[in-house]
UniProtKB/TrEMBL annotation:
It comes from Hydrobacter penzbergensis. This is Outer membrane receptor proteins, mostly Fe transport. Residues 1-22 form the signal peptide. Residues 795-820 are annotated as: Disordered. GO terms for molecular function: carbohydrate binding. Residues 385-789 form the Outer membrane protein beta-barrel domain. Keywords: Cell outer membrane, Membrane, Receptor, Signal.
């Protein structure tokens, strides 16, 4: 820790030294856009340098028509404006210098390009999906069908994203996505991450950013890239806020309520939000497993299982904090976040065990009741100091995050023969699985514009994680619970990751731009199974380069080529050799010997006319982590374990088209094709399997007069391949309606998700001596209605969102729920 503090101090001293050599400060450009006394939202603003017409900065107007651009070098500029329904506008030239550091424009001269239809009132509105060269942006509020929904609902219909039956999120056919909230990690994964996202109301969300190859400033974790979920943060002076309440009805009810408050005055900005979510769902799984003799390939036994579970969750989350503007150059901040989830699950299982000819031998009925309690609190202290207006800046973040879960499970099994008579004694097992995770993290980032307009960035980060998992299982014998030593396990894990990076970027001329970054991460891991006395120690250092090349052919054609190497470390709980039981014959277990995945990713993108985006991407990943199904022949028991199974090649192409079909109708279409090829070893046997995959997303937004809006959206996913599991086609259609009321301060939204009830999971796998087929149905068709109200007013100002120092660690924590 002393060495780390010395590194932080050294970086600060270097930054101060460099700042002393900085050129004279320049300034910022801001303005307001309006036409016919109406503000224009979602207009594209470009800052052009006079000498070569190069675009220096870009911005988008907010709902009040305001925009702001900062850290602009001294020079002569003009502003270009593009807005739907208006002719392109260019401002008069102006100059930024030491004597004129801030320039404000009040643009009122926009000219409509055509008359409005008599039956339609056209307002400028952000599209639901925006495609950019470096990322895809989802504007959450632009979609009426997001009423009363959760973050997971939005992700499931976002372009290029798919979610499997266990809640694992894939981006462009690749698992291993790093999830951030306001640039800060979630530390969750798999089913547990899905539970959290399904308990988060979408009413707090502003945007979702999808980045397949993030720059070196981000943690190298996440083979498939980064999904950054941005929450709302009011930018106006004075007191402002919003209130949202919603109700949903599927087979079971759902409800959500949220409150967002912000107060900004001269030296302080105070903010806070809180939400509560209630959800009751069902989950039906039909699973057939055929086991074959390894030597003769003949059928040895058949398991037909039907599981019906009812889950009830009550969740809350909050975020509060303040920014203190110590001076025009220095800002101090504190952010406190928290999340809690209390859930119960009642699972009933019926298993038919048949011999090789399909004759019933044994029927098992199981009742599996569980309680899941999960709590988390996090503290972030941040500092930002701007040395000048040419881009010299120092930021620092220190984080502490604590997770605590307390899960219990009671499994009761009854056995019958083929005639329905009791067969043997009943079995009752109890499991208690408390878990604690503590994460300490700190980072410093420095940026400066060097001579020749080269943007230089550098930073360091250190994180330290400890986990304590104590799984206690016992069996009921003669009226008393007796410890099951074969399943009980106390596991301690410690991890320290130290990282540093540098990044250089330059706009060479009005056509060419480039960026190069290099990040290094050193990892030290220690695991200790106190119950068995087994320990392991590992350490490794890796380099992660990133390269970006941009080329602007003309006003309508932009190209981008990028490359990056990334890592996906095992989730903390996947390293813990604990047990979770679905029934007597099926359970899940951790694997302390998992290795990290490494991937090389390359992507070529083209944007035509700001409407059509096409990409071609390729990735190669080693030591893919996948679920592996294994059979214990002596007990006819099956368990699922994460293993490093293979290397994977992924080749894909995508197309995104966003354009207005009429003044009142805007459409977005996204098509994705990719091919996955796996080659490696599973259960000691070779694997070589590949498959084609296809996805399509469609979103149509309709804007009518008097504040009415509507949406029709949906997705389709063809056959896809995840390891040895083939996922069969599925899709969904959603409709939504919205109406602005109370002088546009209030909004009523209604939507029906999965209209035709087609969002059902089907899959199969045939590998070695186990054939598996699965069919899963959940409560996906839901009618939602919500009401939101915005209050307060003031002058908008630019606000900084904090990215905490813990950007990788949170993605690897699983919430205290089951792993089914």
């Amino acid at each position: 820790m002393n060495k780390f503090l010395s590194m932080l101090l050294a970086t600060a001293l270097v930054a101060s030294s460099l700042a002393a050599q900085a050129p004279d400060p320049a300034g910022s450009v801001s303005g307001r856009l309006s036409s016919a006394q109406k503000t224009v939202e979602a207009a594209s603003i470009g800052l052009l340098r006079i000498k070569d017409s190069a675009v220096v900065k870009r911005s988008v107007t907010d709902k009040n028509g305001d925009f702001s651009m900062e850290k602009i070098p001294a020079g002569k500029y003009l502003v270009a404006v593009q807005a739907a329904g208006y002719a392109k506008y260019y401002s008069d030239a102006f100059e930024l210098s030491a004597n004129h550091q801030a320039h404000h424009l009040n643009i009122t001269a926009l000219k409509p390009v055509a008359n409005e239809l008599a039956s339609v009132s056209v307002t400028s509105k952000k599209p639901f999906i925006e495609q950019r060269l470096d990322k895809t942006v989802i504007n959450v509020d632009a979609s009426p069908s997001n009423a009363g929904t959760t973050v997971m609902d939005i992700l499931e219909k976002s372009p290029g994203i798919s979610v499997d039956k266990d809640g694992n999120i894939s981006l462009k056919g690749k698992q291993g996505v790093m999830i951030l909230i306001d640039g800060r990690p979630t530390y969750l994964s798999g089913q547990d991450l899905a539970n959290m996202l399904r308990n988060m109301s979408s009413s707090h969300l502003d945007q979702i950013e999808l980045m397949t190859n993030p720059p070196a400033k981000f943690d190298a974790s996440g083979n498939a890239g980064v999904i950054n979920i941005k929450t709302k943060k009011n930018k106006a002076q004075g007191f402002n806020g919003s209130l949202t309440t919603g109700y949903g009805q599927g087979v079971y009810p759902k409800a959500n309520n949220s409150l967002n408050l912000n107060y900004r005055t001269g030296k302080f900005n105070l903010f806070g939000n809180a939400s509560h979510y209630y959800s009751q769902n069902f989950n039906e799984i039909n699973l057939t497993r055929i086991f074959r003799n390894k030597s003769s390939d003949t059928i040895s036994s058949i398991f037909d299982q039907r599981t019906l579970s009812n889950r009830e969750y009550r969740g809350y989350n909050f975020k509060t904090g303040f920014d203190y503007f110590a001076s025009q150059k220095t800002t101090l901040g504190l952010v406190v976040t928290g999340f809690g989830n209390n859930g119960t699950e009642y699972m009933r299982n019926n298993t038919l065990i048949k011999d090789n000819s399909g004759v019933l031998n044994t029927r098992t009925q199981s009742a599996n009741d569980g309680r899941n309690e999960f709590k988390n609190v996090g503290f972030n202290f941040n500092l930002r100091h701007v040395f000048d207006t040419t881009g010299t800046e120092l930021t620092s973040d220190v984080d502490y995050i604590h997770y605590a879960s307390n899960n219990s499970q009671l499994l009761n099994s009854l056995f019958y023969d083929n005639a329905g008579n009791k067969k043997g004694p009943d079995e009752t097992m109890r499991g208690l699985v408390p878990s604690d995770i503590d994460i300490y993290s700190a980072k410093v980032d420095f940026s400066k514009t060097l001579r020749g307009d080269i943007k230089f960035e550098a930073g360091i980060k250190s994180s330290y994680v400890t986990t304590d998992n104590n799984a206690q299982y016992s069996n009921l014998q003669n009226g008393q619970y007796v410890i099951d030593s074969g399943r009980t396990n106390h596991f301690l894990y410690k991890e320290n990751v130290n990282a540093a990076y540098v990044n250089f970027g330059k706009q060479f001329n009005k056509k060419w731009s480039g960026q190069f970054g290099l990040r290094t991460e050193n990892t030290v891991m220690k695991g200790n199974q106190l119950t068995t006395g087994q320990t392991f120690n590992r350490h490794y250092t890796q380099l992660f380069p990133t390269v970006y090349i941009g080329y602007t052919l003309n006003d309508k054609n932009q190209f981008s080529l990028n490359y990056g190497r990334r890592i996906n470390r095992p989730n903390y709980q996947d390293l813990n050799p604990f047990f979770y039981f679905l029934d007597k014959y099926t359970y899940q277990v951790g694997n302390p010997y998992l290795n990290p995945q490494f991937s090389h990713n390359i992507e070529l993108s083209h944007i035509y006319g700001g409407m059509l985006t096409t990409t071609i991407n390729y990735s190669y990943t080693t030591d893919i982590i996948q679920d592996v199904l294994e059979q214990i022949d002596s007990t006819t028991t099956t368990y699922v374990k994460k293993s490093n199974i293979a290397s994977r090649w992924n080749l894909g192409a995508s197309m995104s088209l966003g354009m207005p079909l009429a003044k009142w109708w805007r459409t977005n279409v996204y098509l994705l094709y990719y091919y996955n090829q796996y080659k490696g070893t599973v259960n000691g046997g070779p694997i070589s399997i590949g498959g084609n995959n296809f996805m399509a997303n469609m979103n149509n937004q309709f804007t009518f007069k008097k504040g009415w809006g509507a949406e029709l959206s949906g997705f389709y996913r063809g056959n896809s391949l995840e390891g040895v599991l083939v996922i069969q086609p599925m899709g969904s259609m959603n409709i939504g309606l919205s109406k602005q009321i109370l002088n546009s301060k209030g909004t009523i939204k209604m939507n029906l998700s999965d209209v035709f009830y087609t969002q059902q999971f089907n899959g199969y796998s045939k590998y070695q001596n186990v054939d598996v087929t699965i069919h899963q149905v959940r409560d996906s068709r839901v009618f939602n209605v919500s009401f939101s109200y915005r209050f307060g007013k003031g002058k908008p100002v630019q606000q900084q969102r904090r990215r905490g120092s813990a950007t990788d660690e949170q993605n690897r924590v699983q919430q205290g729920g089951n792993g089914s």
